Amino acid sequence: MAVSLAACGSAEESGDSAKETKKKDGPLTIGLLLPENQTARYEKFDKPLIEKRVSELTDGTGKVVYANAKQDASTQNQQADTMVTNKVDALIVDAVDSKAITGSIKKAKEAGIPVIAFDRLAEGPIDGYVSFDNEEVGRVQGQALLDELGPKAKDGEIVMMNGAITDPNAALFKKGAKSVLDGKVKIGKEYDTKEWKPENANANMEGAISALGKDKIVGVYSANDGMAGGIITALKGAGLSPLPPVTGQDAELAGVQRIVAGEQFMSVYKPYPAEAAVAAEMAVKVAKGEALDSIAKTKLDSATTKGIPSVLVPVVSLTTENINDTVLKDGIYTLDEICTAKFKAKCDTLGLK
Could you identify which of 13, 70, 91, 186 might form a hypothetical disulfide with 31, taking C-beta atoms 3.0 to 4.6 angstroms apart as the criterion? Predict the structure, then answer.
């Protein structure tokens, strides 16, 4: 699963700062910085899962101090600096902007506070990284779209709705998807969607429909579920019926329901409990001054730092075929949450239980 990320020649070594940090005795305080609340996963899954695991790992004595930047990089820098000032024992950071957070990570390092990069590979002297194999996410999305299109891939064009350019993961999703799509389907229009916002994806999609003509669009690569919702609204508004296949990512409840309804073709299910558990375990270990060797068997490079102890969690293509075996089996959602009155007939047809 290991993916080597590009590192510049002057990049510094990760430094195994866990080994340099003085062992911490007594209750631990872990700072958790999440990037935004537009995507449901952060507040619904990541925050409570990390809090729960930190508590378990510290016999109930550890606590998590939480802040959400609401997609503002300067706000996140202030939040990080406040946590450094308040002397948390470790930071878990999911960066709004992987470059903009670098100064705050350096301040944490200077204060002897180790930093775990969560979900997005932040730049600066981080001590560990946990995410999903993001190029593989893009490959899974691209392959699912190609498979669904079949011969139609040669009959028209697709629209690519990528994520925000400030998110390093978006570039990896795009790279993975293009490794599958290039040469096999024509990309009629492509967008980098500001702040991942559904309304921006909606406006972009309306522009693509106007530019290409609705009859020419055979599919849409959407990098996540939130944007897929905005895209599908635009497609419906333009009168496309049946809807072309639209991809997604994150297995958001609304996305799963659109899959059940036949409006969204697929999403990428990323097992958040596994990712959150690793982040919590890494943070507790480095806060105690312990090395990450027992958790992280892979080392990755960022643009600024080499040899970062890393864990990449596998992902799953989510379609109507495996809702039972993924989000329902893992307890991400209950049957009642997915199969509300509006979707019950479709759920019964699919055999969801």
Answer: 91
Q: Distances in Å between the alpha carbon of 321 and those of 28, 144, 218, 229, 349? A: 43, 13, 22, 21, 12
What's the CA gap between 347 and 252, in Å, rounded? Answer: 17
pTM of the model: 0.78
Residue type, 287: A
| Whether the Cβ atoms of residue 179 and residue 149 lie closer than 8 Å to each other | no
Distant-in-sequence, close-in-space partners of 53: CB < 8 Å, separation ≥ 6: 276, 277, 280, 281
> Span 45-54, mean pLDDT?
96
Q: Is the confidence at residue 193, as pLDDT, over 50? A: yes
What is the Cα–Cα distance from 103 to 101, expressed in whole angstroms? 6
Q: How many other C-beta atoms are found inside a 10 Å radius of the C-beta of residue 336?
A: 8
Amino acid at 156: G
The CA-based angle 10-12-15, given to 5 degrees, is 165
d(CA 326, CA 111): 41
pLDDT tens profile 158-189: 999 999 998 889 999 999 999 999 999 999 99
* Segment 335-352 mean pLDDT: 98
3-class DSSP state for residue 344?
A: helix
Rounded Cα distance, 271 and 282, in Å: 17
Q: How far apart (Å, rounded) are the C-alpha atoms in residues 245 and 156?
A: 13
The strand pairing partners of 217, in sequence order, are 157
Residue 177 near residue 183, CB atoms below 8 Å: no
Q: Judge whether 62 and 29 are in contact, CB under 8 Å.
A: yes
Q: Phi, psi (5° rounding) for residue 319?
A: -135, -175
User: CB within 8 A of 108, min separation 6: which ones?
Assistant: 80, 83, 84, 91, 114, 115
Q: Quote the tokens at residue 247.
A: 């991809």
The pair of three-digit structure tokens given for residue 120, joined into one six-digit string: 């997005």
Q: What is the pLDDT of residue 25?
A: 66
Do 104 and 173 meet the contact criterion of CB atoms below 8 Å apart? Answer: no
16 Cα distance to chain centroid: 26
Q: Give 239: exposed, middle or buried? Use CB within 10 Å, 0-12, 13-18, 19+.
A: exposed
CA 93 from centroid of its chain's CA atoms: 13
Rounded-to-integer distance, Cα 344 and Cα 353, Å: 11
